[in-house]
Amino acid sequence: MKKIYLSVIGFSILCRLNVYSQTRVDTAAGDRPAFSLYSPTAYDTTDYRLRRLKIDEIDLVSSYYSQNGDHSPITGGIGTERVTDFSNGLNLNLVWLNQAMNKNTLAVGLGYDHHTSASAAFVALHGGSNPNGTRIYPSLDWTVENAKTGGTFGIGAYYSGEYNYKSKGLDMHWSKKTNNKSGEFDVKLQGYFDQVRLIFPSEFVPPPPPVTAGTTVITTASGNTVVLSSNGQRTNTKNSLPSSPRTTLTAAFSYSQQINSRLQVMFLGDVVTQSGYLGLPFHRVYFNTGKDTIEKLPSSRFKLPVGFMLNYFLGDNIILRSYYRYYVDSWGMRSNTASLEIPYKVTPFFSISPFYRYYDQTAARYFLPYEAHNPTDAYYTSNYAFSKFQAGFYGIGFRIAPPKGVFGWQNLHELEIRYGHYTQTTDMVSDVLSVSMGFK
Amino acid sequence: MINQSIKVLACLLVAVTVTSCAHLKEYQKSRLNDSEMALTNRKVEKNELNFQNYEEGSSGANSGKTGGGCGCN
Q1: B37 interaction partners in chain A (CB closer than 8 Å)
Q2: Residue among B21, B50, B73 minimizing CB distance to A117
Q3: How far apart, in whole angstroms, are the C-alpha atoms of residue A191 and residue A198?
Q4: Closest chain B residue to A428 measured between Cα atoms?
Q5: Which residue does chain A place closest to B55, by CA atoms?
Q6: What are the pLDDT tens digits along chain A (440 aa)?
Q7: Whole-number Å distance between alpha carbons of A85 and A343
């Protein structure tokens, strides 16, 4: 009987100690109860979510663009506008989680274009200039997303460099979701600080200063000067072409809202202000007197575009992607843009998307065609980008995104191919073929 | 007349948006979360938008480039 009592008392003590050890918060190995049969394993400090930096996605976009027309601004609104351009862009998205488990994304981009422009040859009066050009444009953007609210904050920097034009840009952006997460408000502030190299048409380049007999002066295409003196001495002077600044400041606002399980809409509005040299120094204008000069435009411009995107999932296979934008600016231009794209899902992973885009604009008050400007005009341009016209752009796109990867290649998760044909009522036509590949 | 129609259309759109928003559960968002329903331009359109900005006199509010680069052709 005594053994039974002792056994019951011992068992009850052990049970109490176990309960104590299980109810007590075991915060650290050194803070355990004095005695316990319960021996918890050490806390797993490795979170199931990956905190370290990883490559989330790599996107590669390549395009071939071909254009023809007969209103080049370089030759004063007449002459060939033939252009070909081969563009390539690479974007790398790096993702990591910080201590507060907020998602950080670093987007690194690099773009490279090579173009040939028939009209660029006519910066020199008789077509002797270089018609080829390249542009390189790296970019960097860092965004942090609040894990609780879904709001984001980010900053970005851009650079674009080509022979006659350099651009540096900075931006800050925020987004905030509504309480029920069905709406989102976005703000983006951007600043572009550009330098336009003052390359004038050859007939406006001042003649070189007189040199002593026996001296040869060579001006290279880059504006460098090489002086060869009669005694064989060679002197190089660095690029002497001056630049003029152009500044663009933009505040872009958008609000997106899920209306129901098939419909969502986004309202867009930008406020854009530009200042500085807003024309281009090698654009000619021919007056009604037959004399030519260099395009002259005001040194400031204010733009106000507003619009919306509205996407609707129709049935199980068809999506309607629509877009409208109205634009007004301080140079007297008004424009309307409307587009409709209808992706049809042949399978959940393959879709065909025909699209059409309509665009019209009124002329800027400083535009007149070849030999129509008066020398007494304060500002003048014969650039048909500022003329009155309508334009249509139509084509088709294909998207493949199978779960096992495109062509069975697991890393290539998405492939898009898109072709479009563009026509302007100024008789300018162009074609563009683009390919986008997304790697994970 | 066209401008007035656009304004009326815009007001209607705002009114519809503000008054008819439903709070959706996550499982009801499968269609909205489809990648082709995204309220952004497609990645494959990026260079297209640049060409249009160069050849047309207006830019901005289309998620495309609003500055930088020359397009001096």
Answers
A1: 264, 311, 313, 319, 321
A2: B73
A3: 22
A4: B55
A5: A385
A6: 555 555 555 555 544 444 444 444 444 444 455 455 555 555 555 555 557 889 999 999 999 999 999 999 999 999 898 999 999 999 999 999 988 889 999 999 999 999 998 888 888 888 778 888 899 999 999 999 998 888 999 999 999 898 888 999 999 999 999 988 889 999 999 999 999 988 888 888 877 666 666 666 666 655 566 667 766 676 766 656 889 999 999 999 999 999 999 999 999 999 999 999 999 999 999 999 999 999 999 999 999 999 999 999 998 999 999 999 999 999 999 999 999 999 999 999 999 999 999 999 999 999 999 999 999 999 999 999 999 999 999 999 999 999 999 988 889 999 999 999 999 999 999 999 999 999 98
A7: 27
Contact across the interface for A306 and B61, Cβ inside 8 Å: yes
Using an 8 Å CB-CB cutoff, list chain A residues near B54.
Answer: 385
Q: Find the length of chain A.
A: 440
Prediction pTM value: 0.81
Tell how many helices (H) and how many strands (E) occur in chain A.
1, 22
A305: nearest Cα among A334, A340, A275, A265: A334
Residues of B in contact with A418 (CB under 8 A): 42, 44-45, 48
3-state helix, strand, coil in chain B (%, to 5): 50, 0, 50
Q: How far apart are CA A380 and CA A388, in angstroms?
A: 15
Cβ <8 Å between B42 and A385:
no
Residues of chain B with Cβ-Cβ distance to A185 below 8 Å are: none
Residue of A nearest to B52 (CA): A422
A360 token code pair? 């019209």
CB contact under 8 A, B43 and A167: no
Hey, is A382 helix, strand or coil? coil
CA distance B71 to chain A (A): 9
- What is the interface pTM, i.e. ipTM, of the complex? 0.79
